[in-house]
Design goal:
alpha+beta, 2 domains, ATP synthesis, four-stranded mixed β-sheet, 4 strands, ATPase_OSCP/dsu, proton-transporting ATP synthase activity, rotational mechanism
């Protein structure tokens, strides 16, 4: 069974429970923090995957580390420890976010630009590109990438809208090379 299928099952179960408890937004925010911890401290992930510690001790560490997180999320992390799937947290978070976005009528979008976007620019991008993918609004993450030279590249799921100077120059280069 693929890793994404496994993460999808856990994310779907967590999402359904979060819907029942009306805690989707809270768990979504807590998942961001959990993923941040997992990405910035690989030693923590190694500790949770290590056979040197008992599952009870690992669960205690998770409960103490994420004491402020929603109990459903902490229980899910403890279940992942029991099933030796703690390395699936990032994939679980990605799938949970997609499920939450779909249920709430928005989509996650990454906008690459040469500078930080203003709130007004984010709103304009959200309105125009949201319509293209059939969503009411977009939750925008702005990534600053000087190599694009100007313009923006918007990534929404599998869709990529590239209106950057770098891509236009690349197209011109291909045209002139013929």
């Amino acid at each position: 069974m693929s890793q994404l299928t496994i993460a999808n099952r856990y994310a779907t179960a967590l999402f359904q429970l979060a819907l029942e408890k009306q805690a989707v937004t809270e768990i979504n925010a807590d998942l961001d923090e959990v993923v941040k911890v997992f990405e910035t401290t690989p030693e923590f992930v190694s500790l949770l995957a290590s056979p040197k510690f008992s599952n009870a001790r690992k669960k205690q560490i998770v409960a103490e580390t994420f004491a402020g997180a929603h109990p459903l999320l902490v229980n899910t992390l403890e279940l992942l420890i029991d099933k030796k799937r703690i390395d699936e947290v990032s994939n679980l978070a990605i799938r949970f976010k997609a499920l939450a976005a779909e249920a709430q009528g928005y989509a996650e979008a990454t906008v690459f630009s040469t500078r930080a976007l203003t709130d007004q620019e984010k709103d304009e991008i959200s309105a125009s590109f949201g319509k293209l993918v059939g969503k009411e609004k977009l939750s925008i993450t702005n990534v600053i990438e000087p190599s694009i030279l100007g313009g923006v590249r918007v990534q929404i799921g599998n869709y990529i809208f590239d209106n950057t100077i770098a891509s236009k120059l690349q197209g011109l280069k291909r045209t002139l090379a013929v």
